[in-house]
Write a structure and sequence with these properties.
Two copies of one chain form a homodimer. By secondary structure, chain A is of the alpha/beta class. Chain A has helices at residues 15-28, 38-45, 70-76, 81-90, 103-113, 151-167, 190-201, 227-253, 256-275, 302-317, 320-331; strands at 2-6, 31-36, 55-59, 96-99, 124-130, 137-141, 175-179, 205-210, 222-224, 284-287, 292-295. In chain A, helix 7 links the parallel strand 7 and strand 8 (205-210). In chain A, helix 1 (15-28) crosses helix 10 (302-317). The longest helix of chain A is centred in the C-terminal third of the chain and has 27 residues, at 227-253. Chains A and B meet through helix 8 and helix 9 of A and helix 8 and helix 9 of B.
């Protein structure tokens, strides 16, 4: 199994990416193809003892930065680590590509170089969202690839998400819900109202509408929405969590008794942080493109990178791509 | 000043509604018109010494329950407290109506009995949302009246929200933002992209796009969105907050040292809860209908009801209705 890794992608690249990729090579016995500027990547590699690891370095002279316009950057930077990495998958030299870089860039590069799976109308960006399900998370998509969607897109997102949850996340017969502004059938904007009949008629385990409050509450294993709403959901969750914790922190430091309390309660706080920690999951797939592409968080540290590479390997092992190719016909 | 109060509206009606309304009558010197089943409301009134309070009881034999279909219930229950209360405003016997009941029902009853302000295409439901602004909240609309919107609706929501924030919430020259899936101009679904030019061309203090994470982060005083996204925002915030606090609670009670810490940190937790407490605000207006209608939280306690009645009085005092009538022409 060969996993190409974008050595230049993420806020702390290439340092933490090389560190994490080496951990993956060592712990998981994977062959890692590091893609990026030879000098910068080699300088990082020189810090480690890489003897016995299956490791190659693929030079790419350019980098797509986090704040660049995705489609324009991909077109302008044909020798970027993002594009070169996708090409390794395209030529089947790599089984999968992992990047913690610009997710819009990854989407554009994947569409540009790998194209869509036949029959899939739009690819979707996904994420692992903390939730009170038995597995402690749900799989949420689309989180930003398609701001405007058609019902058929959402049905396909649901099918792809369900297959991924079953095969890679180990959720049997995943419960699928659609985000809406009310639990009752009939609630929803026009898009939701037009999509629900498709979901009900499909072979999916569709459990109905999920209100905003239900998403973290474990109602469903796979939660489907348009990329506009999905993006608002993930960013609002981040904002609300940070707001709550910041206000709590400010209150605690303004009270000396509370400060002692906070110190004693720290293990509990740490456990909560772990529950919300994206590093555990490492990455989530770009579904619908003709190749395995896993996108990690821009803030990824070495552990997150290692786990993200692992997610890529599991996605390949479990034949998600073929499952989607066959599943689109079976479920629709 | 006469405020009609839906004595039957809310999870704890009529008990807490009567209690809160009497507090408003006493503290604020308002004339309160309690609307509801005579027997039930009188039984509550009998618990208090109401001597010297300006208080009337208006019988309404029916109640629109929290889980009823709004439009159908309003049509079927012409003698419901919701409809009778709106009629008091319609006939100018009351200056405003406050209800903590079914908000969809209030919307339907208001549209049915009061109608829209001339020139307003759609009314909007609003809320006070905790945020790091100088005033510690922002004003968010629409939160559910219109699942599908046109650009013109959103412009009008922005105008109404801005006028309300300025006149009732005391925010000078309110900063207006629109919810989007990216801060940069050009980001957004089709609706947002079509609305931004209208907001820019208006006389509003438009500050641009707000991502989900910016909403609690104080970027804007008035945040505009369609009723589908707005509903997801408020319900998700509720879900995420509850999730975080529940996980924290579970972690704390599983550790005895943390338990002591939590006890010491309790004042800080309480302060955070106060920051998120809807009771402080009491209610938010249904904007765009031809009458002052304030909607409180279904879970309102007596303090929230009292404050909600106060919001109604301030909305009347500050001439919001006339301001909107004139403002629509001025801002568009």
């Amino acid at each position: 199994m060969k996993i190409a890794v974008d050595a230049m992608g993420g806020d702390h690249a290439p340092e933490v990416v090389v560190d994490g990729a080496l951990q993956a090579a060592r712990d998981l016995g994977l062959e890692i193809m590091l893609v990026g500027r030879r000098g910068a990547v080699q300088a990082e590699l020189d810090k480690y003892d890489t003897a016995g690891l299956a490791l190659t370095l693929h030079h790419a002279s350019q980098v797509i930065e986090m704040d660049e316009h995705p489609a324009a950057a991909v077109k302008a930077k044909k020798d970027s680590s993002m594009v070169v990495g996708m090409d390794l998958v395209k030529r089947r030299e790599a089984d999968a590509f992992f990047t913690a870089g610009n997710s819009g860039g990854a989407l554009a590069a994947a569409l540009f170089r790998l194209g869509r799976i036949r029959g899939i109308q739009r690819p979707a960006l996904s994420t692992i969202f903390p939730s009170q399900t038995p597995q402690s998370f749900c799989f949420l998509l689309d989180i930003g690839a398609n701001a405007d969607c058609k019902p058929q897109y959402l049905l396909q997102f649901a099918i792809m998400g369900s297959l991924y949850a079953e095969r890679v996340l180990g959720v049997p017969n995943p419960r699928v819900a659609i985000v809406s502004n009310g639990e009752e059938e009939g609630k929803g904007n026009q898009l939701v109202q037009d999509t629900v009949p498709l979901l009900k008629a499909s072979a999916l385990n569709f459990v109905g509408n999920a209100e905003g409050k239900d998403v973290p509450w474990g109602l469903a294993d796979v939660v489907v929405t348009d990329g506009f709403t999905g993006n608002v959901i993930i960013k609002l969750s981040e904002g609300v969590s940070k707001f709550l914790l910041d206000v709590l922190k400010a209150e605690i430091t303004s009270r000396s008794v509370s400060k002692v309390g906070a110190l004693l309660a720290k293990p509990a706080f740490d456990a909560v942080s772990r529950r919300l920690d994206y590093r555990e999951f490492g990455g989530a797939p770009l579904l619908g493109v003709d190749g395995v592409v896993i996108i990690g968080h821009g803030r990824s540290d070495a552990l997150a990178i290692r786990n993200g590479v692992h997610v890529a390997a599991r996605t390949v092992e479990n034949g998600v791509l073929d499952a989607i190719k066959q599943g689109i016909a079976r479920y629709e």
